[in-house]
Amino acid sequence: MSIHAPPGMGTVYRAVLATLAEHGPRRPPIAEIARRAATNRQYLYRNWPDFQVLTRDACEAELDRLLYVASDTGGTLPPPCRVPAQIVRAARLLREHPVTRATARTSPDLLLVALTRPATALHARALYWVQARLYEWRPGTDHSTMARTLFTVTAPFALVPPPSDDPSDRELLNTRLSTALHACLGLAPACSDCSHKAERSPYTPGYAE
Question: Which of 19, 101, 126, 168 is the 20 to 30 Å CA partner of 59?
């Protein structure tokens, strides 16, 4: 009889995300998650008696991963332009994620709830990440109000997948979001590479001072 070691947490989370991407977020088959993780349902039930907790944990871990990737963006840009670049990349990664696409396809009402009722652990993580980006730019400043503004502006770009995979459509969404974020931050509209020195904008007087 062969004995298999239990799967690691990362293996289980990847199995959950792959199953969500195929079946959507409503009642994905736990037997398939077990199969993808090379384990059995008893193992999953023993460690996660509440299946919603397993789904939540997997999604939170994946969000942390995407935000970490987005944080490593714009290192050569001026600090003010780095903030929009990081947020734009985070929005693109979320928008194009297989789980987001599956949710839009199978349960669009859940995306509507996510857009209009931002009171979940996932939203809290994302909002904290936005605040951290602002704090890196302007330490010692209370950015809570601006973070919520940027979060509200970004959410539709992050949670509503584009109608096609046309690169020009993707770039248009990125450009529109970048322009909106620059305006919210009181920066001049972004140039092609954000390599210019940020200037004051009439949209939000005073914030970039």
Answer: 168
Cα–Cα distance, 177 to 31 (Å, whole number): 40
Q: Is the pLDDT of residue 6 over 90?
A: no
Token couple for 162: 């584009």
pLDDT band at residue 190 using 50, 70 and 90 as cut-offs: low
* Tokens, residue 76: 């050569």
Catalogue the E-assigned strands of 86-160. none
pLDDT at 199: 35
* Token couple for 155: 């959410």
Handedness of CA 99, 70, 187, 163 (dihedral sign): negative
Euclidean distance between CA atoms 101 and 84, whole angstroms: 23
Write down the pLDDT at residue 110.
84
Contact 18, 44 (CB under 8 A): no
The closest of 61, 88, 63 to 74, measured between CA atoms, is 88
* Residue 187 backbone dihedrals phi, psi, to 5 degrees: -105, 155
Task: Work out the average pLDDT over 162-186.
Answer: 87
Question: What are the backbone dihedrals phi and psi of residue 88, each rounded to the nearest 5 degrees, phi first?
Answer: -60, -45
DSSP line for 196-209: SPP-B-SSSTTTT-
Main-chain dihedrals φ then ψ at residue 196, nearest 5 degrees: -75, 160
